[in-house]
C-alpha cells in the first residue's frame, strides 16, 4: 500500500492511496480457498472445486468484496497512523474510467483512489469554575393547587338546560352551528355544526365568545372577529371574518362540591390525595422548566467561552437537518418567509448560525464527557427504549424491534442521556445559585426563548 498526502487545509485532509494488484490478488486467492470448502457445484465433490473454476464463476464479486475490505483497512490505517479523530466517515473517490475499474476487478491493475477526511479540531476547555449561573425557582403555592382544582371542576362540571326563552350569560355552555366568511367567501375550517362553547372560556378566537352573551336558543346572529396576527393558519392570520352563528341550546353550569366524592370521580381516594398529586405534577413541570432555563444559560456560557474551527461537513449536515424541519413545518402550516417577516436568504443565514452553535456545543460536551469518563450504560438505554415504546400504545413490540434493529435509532436514545449526564457534571463545576421567581416570570421566560440550543 502506498499513501501520499495530497491536501492539508484546515480540518480537511486528502490522500492518494494505491493498493497493489498483487496484494488484492493474494486476498482474492485466500477468499477462493475459503469458498472451495463451502460452495456446492454440480459435477464436483465438496472441497474439490478448482480455484480457476471458482474464479470464473465468482471472480468479479469476490474481487469487489476484497476491494471493499482492503479500502476500509487502508483508510483505518491512515486514521491510526495520523492519530486522527474523524468528524465524518471518509469520502472515497474511485477512478471514473470504466476501463480502469475493469482492469482492477480482473486483477490486471493496481487500484488507485483518493480519500478525503475531515478531522475534529483540538478543543481547549474553558475554566468552568469561573461560570456563575442562577437557577430560577418558582415553588408551587397552595393557590396554584386551588387554581388547578378549579380547572378540573370546570372540565367536569355538569350543565343543565336553561328554561325556554333564556339568554346566554358568562360561563353558560351554548351549542352553536356557524359558517365563517372572509370578504363574503366561505373559507376552509370556518364552518361547523353543534359545537359546545363555554362563554368566557377563551377557547375561540378573541372576541368571539363575548358576542355570544345574550344569544337565545333558536337565534341567529353575526359575529365579527379578527384572526390574531400570529394565527397558526397563515392564510387567516390578521384577516377580518364574519361568522353566521345559530344557537340551538343554552345550558347553565351546575355546582360541584370539592370533596372526596369529587376526587373519586378522578381516580383518587380523597381530595387531599388529589391535591398532593396535583402539587407533584406542578412541581415536576416547574422543575423541568427551571432546568431548561438553567441548561440554556449554561449552553450560552459554553458557547461564548469556546471558539475553534468547525468541521464543515458536520455543520452542513446539521444545517440540512434543521432546514428540512423548518421548511417542512412552514409548508405544513401554509406559511412563507414573508409571513415570518424575513427572506429565505436571511433565514438560511440565521439557521446556519444555529447549526454552527449546535455543532460547537456538541463537540464541547463530547470532549468534556470523554475527559470526565462519562458513560451511558446499556440499562439506561433500555429504560429509555421502554419509555419510548410505552408512548406508542398497542405498537410497543414494533417500536422495540425497530430500535433494536437500527443502531442509529438506538444511538438517538443514547445521545440525550449522555448530554444530560454531561450537563449534570458541568453544573457541579460552576458557581450555581438559586433565584426565586414567580410562576408568571418562569413561564414568560419560556415564551421568550428561541429554540436555538
Care to give the gist of this entry?
Its EC number is 5.2.1.8. With 453 residues, the chain is α+β, with helices and mostly antiparallel strands.
What helical percentage do the residues reach?
40-55%
Order of helices and strands: EEHHEHEEHEEEEEHHHHHHHEH
Mean pLDDT over the residues: 90
Distance between the termini: 45 Å
Name the CATH class of the largest domain: Mainly Alpha
Indicate the CATH architecture of the largest domain.
Orthogonal Bundle
CATH homologous superfamily name of the largest domain? Trigger factor, C-terminal domain
Structural class estimated from helices and strands: alpha+beta
Number of helices: 12
| Percent of residues in beta strands | 15-25%
Reported for the largest beta sheet, the result is:
5 strands, antiparallel
Uncertain segments are 447-453
* CATH fold descriptor of the largest domain: Trigger factor, domain 2
Overall morphology: elongated
Number of strands: 11
How many structurally independent domains? 3
Pfam families: FKBP_C, Trigger_C, Trigger_N
Protein name: Trigger factor
Function: Involved in protein export. Acts as a chaperone by maintaining the newly synthesized protein in an open conformation. Functions as a peptidyl-prolyl cis-trans isomerase.
Keywords: Cell cycle, Cell division, Chaperone, Cytoplasm, Isomerase, Rotamase
